[in-house]
Design goal:
Length: 279
């Protein structure tokens, strides 16, 4: 009897601990890392085709009061939301974007499109905005009036939130001068509508060019025919978030090109034979 009692005590204790253990499970499942909350607050809700409020007022890095509409004068624009006290990621975005701009071929910053960077920090220091703009302009190769081609803007909380909400960009303030935000370029049409989102710290020049040509409906850079063929051969992959080659369409264009060359050669030979017969 005593032996049975001794054997049953641990088993009984274990059974009594099971309800207590079960009560802890919801707490463990419900526990979460604060970083998870930040990730949920930060992101992009794509709003393709939606207009942005171009009437919003900001200040550029020189302190001059401007409107977003000042930079929509016939061409598309790339809108970026960053902040100038960012220690690493934002300067990397500026550097990589400047590098991509230098490799856009016949698309020229200022002539065909503009870049508009807006700080998400309403307490931004103008001196820091000037420093970031000067450092970025140095990477573009000595453009004239770079502040009109790529302004670094500052604004109040209302204007910043209005712009961010219009393009679907969600960010979170993490401290006095620290923000969590997505790395995304918002390509906007000449009339101020969201056309495309390009993600990542570095965007390939090809993707940037295709997005700009698409936003401008083929009216910038080369001829509209060549731009139409370019957009016909490439399409935007919503899963991979980049432009990919449409192989079947490329083959179609190539076959049409071969057919056109063949027809031209036959016409030339026919005219030569006709002239020889007449002689």
């Amino acid at each position: 009897m005593a032996r049975a009692l001794r054997t049953g005590v641990p088993l009984l204790a274990a059974l009594l601990l099971i309800p207590a253990f079960l009560t802890l499970l919801p707490r463990s499942a419900g526990a979460h890392d604060p970083q998870d909350e930040v990730l949920q607050q930060v992101g992009v809700d794509e709003r393709l085709g939606q207009p942005i409020p171009t009437g919003l007022r900001f200040r550029d890095q020189t302190g001059k009061k401007v409107r977003l509409a000042d930079y929509f004068t016939g061409g598309p624009a790339i809108v970026t939301l960053n902040y100038y006290a960012c220690p690493t990621l934002c300067p990397l975005v500026f550097r990589n974007l400047a590098g991509s701009v230098r490799h856009l071929g016949n698309l020229k910053l200022g002539k065909d499109f503009r870049i508009v960077t807006v700080s998400i920090n309403p307490d931004e220091i103008p001196a820091l905005a000037r420093d970031k703009s000067v450092a970025t302009y140095a990477m573009l190769g000595g453009l004239s009036e770079p502040e009109n081609r790529w302004p670094f803007l500052m604004g109040d909380q209302s204007a910043i939130e209005n712009l961010a909400q219009s393009v679907g960009v969600r960010y979170s303030r993490q401290g006095k001068n620290d923000f969590a935000h997505p790395n995304v370029l918002v390509v906007v049409t000449p009339d101020g509508r969201v056309s495309r989102y390009l993600y990542g710290l570095e965007v390939r020049p090809r993707d940037l060019k295709l997005a700009l040509v698409e936003a401008a409906d083929g009216r910038i850079g080369g001829s509209r025919l060549s731009n139409s063929l370019l957009l016909y051969c490439f399409h935007y992959d919503p899963v991979g978030k980049k432009y990919v080659l449409f192989a079947s369409r490329l083959m179609t264009v190539s076959m049409l090109g071969v057919l056109a060359v063949t027809v031209a050669m036959l016409i030339r030979l026919w005219r030569r034979e006709k002239k020889s017969g007449a002689a």
